[in-house]
Specification:
3-stranded antiparallel beta sheet, Multidrug-efflux Transporter Regulator, Chain: A, Domain 2
Amino acid sequence: MADKREYRMEELAREAGITVRTLRFYRERKLIGPPRREGRIAWYDESHLNRLRTIAALLERGHTLSGIAELAEAFEHGRGVGDVLGLGTPTEEEPVRLTPEELAARFEGEVTPENLASAMELGYVGADGDEIVHISRRLLDVSSALVREGIPLAEVLATGARVREHAEALADLFADLVLRHAGRDDLTRLRPLARSVVEAELSLALDRRLQQAQRP
């Protein structure tokens, strides 16, 4: 297996397209992690280079260095991917791995430390090294679509928390029904029926809301 690539400070700055002075500044602001020390020599690796490229991408998208520092702190002290994906049960949802700049591109201008903390608290996202893992591609796609429609991400997340409460209650109803009349092993097999009922009832409820909205 090939050895892990490492860089001296001058080499890292050159690879990242920045000056050594800028690199020192980023280190002082703790925007990148500390290097590996070997005597008086500091060695940096690919994770440092990836972080520098992420910083450049976020700056290009209008984020300030202060905002990036806050995001990095929220990210590093947030939930790990094990907390998010450690469900211990089968799931139909597909997790998505994203770099910080890819997340910023999904939610243009809306990825703030507060929103990131809310998403972590909900269990939507977790940290895995220099990557972010979203627990559900469907939720990610819907959330970004709503933000593109002009709905603030903070309100999308707050609504998601309320939907979670109702979804938990619906799951309890279905699980109780199956456990009373079938068996524990049937929960997985019959879960598509529960999803169909919820989708149909939600569709009918939206029909009623649309009819109400169209009345003079």
